[in-house]
Specification:
5 strands, alpha+beta, globular, about 100 residues, 5-stranded antiparallel beta sheet
Length: about 100
């Protein structure tokens, strides 16, 4: 199993988080976040995937699917955001 990890940013002039072009694949979320880099408060979307997608496949996943979890950097370390919050975000995005 691998993880596709993408850094998120606030959309200009809006309140929506969008996927940046900073996308990595790794066997540990923390490794991908460290390779992308970030500051306190940066948010990352994470997808669990079978196998190891190439960069083009990883970008396709990040651009077309809702993430399975969100992570945030706090105190220079990445932490997973609570699952209840993720479910609320998914429900809101589906209308």
């Amino acid at each position: 199993m691998s993880y596709v990890v993408a850094k998120l940013k606030l959309e200009a002039g809006g309140d929506d988080l969008v996927v940046t072009d900073e996308i990595k694949v790794a066997t540990k979320v923390e490794d991908a976040v460290n390779r992308i880099g970030g500051w306190n408060g940066d948010v990352f979307a994470v997808w669990d995937v079978d196998g190891r997608p190439n960069p083009a496949e990883a970008e396709g996943i990040a651009q077309s699917q809702l993430p399975e979890s969100l992570w945030v950097i706090a105190g220079e370390m990445p932490f997973q955001i609570e699952d209840r919050y993720i479910e609320t975000v998914r429900q809101d995005s589906r209308g």
